[in-house]
Write a structure and sequence with these properties.
Layout (H helix, E strand, L loop, with lengths): L8 H11 L4 H8 L3 H8 L8 H10 L4 H12 L53 H13 L2 E5 L6 H11 L8 E5 L9 H8 L10 H9 L4 E6 L5 H14 L3 E6 L9 E5 L14 H4 L3 H13 L10 H10 L4 H8 L7 H6 L22 H9 L4 H10 L6 E2 H8 L8 H11 L4 E2 L8 E3 L2 H14 L2 H20 L7 H10 L1 H13 L3 H17 L3 H14 L6 H17 L3 H18 L2 H17 L3 H18 L2 H17 L3 H18 L2 H17 L3 H18 L2 H17 L3 H18 L5 H18 L1 H13 L2 H9 L1
Parallel strand pairs: 1-4, 1-5, 2-3, 3-4
Antiparallel strand pairs: 6-8, 7-8
Length: 802
């Protein structure tokens, strides 16, 4: 373009987008277009956009007046090609991001590679991986051998190609690609490398000597791709070359490390993917690499494909279920021609036929996900294959102890599991699941777990492995239950959280096998965890399912415990009509059994429901009996709980002095027991009593301590109450906007955990907000409430404690 000429439509589009601080993906979502189409427009691949496209873009960029007119005029003008750069029209779209581009933008394709490089030109875009590219470049600056490892389909080869291409200027001798996937004879590895580097071998000279002679003085990078099936030959050759050729660096890809001196092993991570969540928004979804890849590939096979607000959950679920594995995501995207995203998700479980590539030109092992994983599986020894299929029973990860007892439990030598597990991890089939102070965990990426599950189900071992799994997690949950009201509760809550998917699988197994007593024991061991962590609806559903199947074979004590715990969760869902008969039946059974502690527990539970139903006298009688029974057996937890509920009853009768005394006694006992949940609850109750007595500053300090404990334990119902406490305080302080925002945030959290405020407390809380609503007016009040509902609870809590 000559100096002073009007900017092209693509240049103008880029200018307006950057001025609006939007990535191409974000503008695409706002305009209802594809990110690929916007990329094509900006780089001039499409020079005459359609009129409706221009209108959508102008609206999305909020262009008005002269800017809008100039934008439309540029769209009608077809600029003269710049013939001074003839290569510009021969560029190929290549994935990656230039250093000077804004995050989320696609760089223009690179020109054709020069003769000192053998990297393949890529015909599809390269999504994300900015951090990985930088990391590999940094590693190769100091290490002479970097090996990219990862599961089949994790994108090792493509990442190596892109990283190598970005490093070309560092290597005057070139960047050379050596592809080993099709090679089966380890004796031909050196010959394959020589051919790829275009080394002419004189007769009588051994190929290894020819390689060393050629490379000894050259500064170059070799990309050695797919080493895993020739691992020993590759390791020997690489060690020889690096020892004899001081300026050569090697970037290898393999499903396991070469394990030679000086090697830096770098595990290629899955693409970033969202956690499915009911409040996930379209603009949030677009930030994840897995989503960006899915959309790019989907729009390639179906250019009209778009994601709307109603698709957000399905896309998030798809990318999460495929664990960010690039090959699996690309294969799923190929199905959008015939299926909606929701339909693809429904067909994922165990269906490897769904995950088949559309390209006929890729190697057979890459044409389906199953073929890719077959490649890895066939390289395993029989014992490794046995452990691998046994690990498929775990959902969400496992510890070494679990792997030994469940996946390897039928074998005599349990210690062998550690060596086999280590080998599977080295072959990238098992992924370490993160560092924990108390235990190390591993997991299988979900597509790989589905693959292993297929082999488990056809092996004849599935029932035995699943039974060991269910019994292992029953024992684990019952052991954990004993710690959930002790100073160690935070540690055990986290352990239960990490294995929640395994515990869910065990519950499903017991129900499917009609092992109802075991199922009810497991549910009863989990009720406190479900309550603390806000899984009340899920817990109620599990209890209802199992109790409906319970028969004469279930021990009375097990049934009574399950009835009481189901009633407890029902009471916190404010479903008193369902909770009361469950608790009453539990109380009847426990009286017949002479279970004093259990009777006291059911009495306190029944007292709370009775109080909420308006019978103050009967409630106080139940609380008092519970207190006396607990004192008889010396149950400190029960005593503190009964005192706390007597305090609630006194506060309901507006006897604040008595309520405060009871609550302070209860709080002291909770502290003595080291039960953080009980302390947080008692502080919440005490703060509200003090607030009603007019001691605002003291109440604020108490509320803050309660919230700090709730956050440390992941006590979601406690956080909801703390948000409401802060809203009450803000209303009294004359901060109506803050009060309504906090109340809206609390309401959103309560909906998610299925624990609404009890009706009486709901009415009192609403009454405290009336002055705030009057101060702001109807419209502003609704806006403040909606703003609070959309706020991230974690951020609000951090701000409150900050």
């Amino acid at each position: 373009m000559s100096s002073g000429a009007s900017p092209s439509f693509g240049d103008l589009l880029r200018q307006h987008r950057r001025a609006a601080e939007l990535t191409q993906e974000e503008l695409a979502a706002r305009a209802g277009l594809s990110a690929r189409g916007i990329n094509d427009l900006e780089r001039g691949a499409r020079r005459t956009p359609r009129r409706d496209t221009v209108a959508l873009l102008a609206d999305a960029l909020h262009l008005v007046g002269d800017e809008h007119a100039a934008f439309e005029a540029a769209a009608r003008h077809r600029p003269t090609p710049d013939l001074s750069h003839p290569t510009r029209t021969h560029r190929v779209r290549s994935e990656g991001v230039a250093d000077n581009e804004a995050p989320g933008e696609r760089m223009d394709a690179r020109p054709c590679l020069s003769v000192d490089h053998s990297l393949r030109i890529q015909l599809t875009s390269f999504v994300g991986r900015r951090h990985e590219m930088a990391e590999i470049g940094s590693l190769l600056a100091s290490a002479r051998l970097v090996t990219l490892t990862g599961a089949g389909g994790s994108g090792k080869t493509r990442l190596a190609i892109e990283a190598a291409a970005a490093l070309r200027e560092r290597f005057p001798g070139g960047v050379w690609m050596v592809e080993l996937a099709a090679l089966t004879d380890p004796h031909l590895v050196a010959d394959t490398v020589a051919r790829a580097l275009e080394i002419r071998q004189d007769s009588g000279v051994l190929v290894l000597q020819a390689l060393v002679d050629h490379l000894r003085s050259r500064r170059l990078l070799i990309v050695l791709d797919n080493c895993e099936h020739l691992i020993l030959a590759c390791a020997q050759l690489v060690e020889l070359l690096l020892g004899a050729c001081p300026h050569v660096r090697i970037l290898a890809t393999s499903r396991e490390a070469l394990r030679i001196p000086g090697e830096v092993v770098w595990l290629v991570p899955p693409l970033s993917r969202p956690v499915p969540h009911p409040l996930l928004l379209l603009q949030d979804l677009m930030r994840y690499e897995a989503v960006a890849l899915f959309l790019e590939r989907a729009q390639t096979v179906s250019p009209t494909f778009m994601v709307s607000g109603q698709d957000v959950q399905a896309v998030a679920e798809l990318c999460a279920r495929l664990d960010g594995l690039p090959l699996a995501i690309e294969m799923a995207a190929a199905r959008v021609k015939m299926l909606t995203v929701g339909e693809i998700v429904e067909r994922l479980d165990g269906s490897f036929r769904l995950l088949a590539a559309g390209s006929r030109t890729v190697s057979p092992r890459q044409q389906t996900l199953k073929a890719t994983l077959d490649w890895s599986h066939n390289l395993l020894a029989p014992a490794e294959q046995a452990l691998f299929r046994g690990l498929a029973v775990f959902a969400g990860g496992f510890t070494l102890r679990a792997a030994e007892q469940v996946a390897w439990g039928a074998h005599e030598d349990a210690t062998q599991a550690l060596d086999l597990l280590t080998s599977l991890a080295e072959k990238s089939l098992v992924v370490p699941g993160g560092d924990h102070t108390d235990e190390m965990r591993c997991r299988l990426l979900e597509p790989i777990r589905q693959y292993a599950l297929h082999y488990l189900e056809t092996s004849g071992e599935a029932i035995a492995v699943q039974e060991r799994h269910a019994q292992f997690f029953l024992a684990f949950a019952e052991a954990a239950e004993a710690y959930l009201e002790t100073p160690n509760q935070a540690v055990w809550l986290e352990r239960l959280e990490r294995d929640h998917d395994n515990l869910r699988a065990a519950l499903r197994w017991f129900a499917s096998r009609r092992e109802i007593a075991c199922g009810l024991r497991l549910a009863s061991a989990l009720w406190m965890f479900w309550f603390i962590r806000g899984y009340v609806p899920e817990g109620r559903e599990r209890f209802a399912e199992l109790l409906a199947l319970a028969g004469d074979g279930v021990p009375a004590a097990v049934c009574a415990s399950a009835l009481n715990n189901a009633g407890f969760l029902g009471r916190y869902a404010s479903d008193y009509a369902s909770a009361r008969p469950l608790i009453a039946e539990s109380l009847r059974i426990r009286r017949e059994l002479g279970d004093v502690k259990g009777t006291a527990d059911s009495m306190a539970n029944l007292g709370y429901v009775t109080l909420q139903l308006g019978d103050y006298t009967a409630a106080c009688a139940a609380y008092q009996e519970s207190l006396e029974l607990n004192r008889t057996v010396g149950n400190g937890q029960g005593i503190a709980d009964a005192l706390s509920h007597l305090a609630i009853a006194a506060a309901y009768k507006n006897d604040l002095a008595h309520a405060r005394a009871l609550n302070e006694e209860s709080l002291a006992l909770w502290r003595e027991l080291g039960d953080g949940q009980g302390v947080s609850w008692a502080l919440h109750q005490l703060g509200n009593i003090i607030l009603r007595q007019g001691e605002n500053e003291a109440a604020q300090a108490i509320f803050k301590e309660s919230l700090r404990i709730a956050r440390s334990l992941g006590l979601r119902w406690g956080i909801a109450w703390s948000l409401e406490d802060a809203a009450r305080l803000a209303a009294l302080q004359g901060l109506p906007g803050r009060a309504l925002r906090l109340a809206g945030c609390a309401a959103s959290l309560r909906r998610r955990i299925g624990m609404p405020l009890p009706p009486r407390e709901r009415a009192e809380f609403d009454a405290t907000l009336v002055p705030s609503r009057h101060a702001l007016g109807e419209t502003a009040s609704a806006a403040a409430w909606a703003e609070g509902e959309a706020m991230a609870v974690e951020q609000v809590v951090d701000d409150m404690l900050g």
